[in-house]
Amino acid sequence: MSVLKDNGITDYRHQARKVTIEDFREYDYVLGMDEDNVEDLRDLVKRAAKKGALSGDEAGRIHMYGEFGGKTKGEEIGDPYYGGRDGFEVAYEQVTRFGKALLRHIEVEAAKELGSSVP
Description:
single chain, mainly alpha, Rossmann fold, two-stranded parallel ribbon, 4 helices, globular
């Protein structure tokens, strides 16, 4: 929490939850922090498609977060818990960088759909 505080984030409340099948219907982007996450998400879609709960096309919504702004296309966010404060600082920097790049990507895609351009 000290890394967040040092970056001006003082009202953060963390609440984790499992990804649900409904998430693939509701969200355009389902992001994994590492390849294991992405593989687990793809397996979830496959299992749901076999049961008829999803079409299987929803797998196209799954992305490695590092695809957006990563130093490499597959840049992963490691679990900061095992890296001490440095691990949290690295994870914060990555999440911030990836988030900005993801928003830019969404702006560009929306502009394409609207037939305009983004500066």
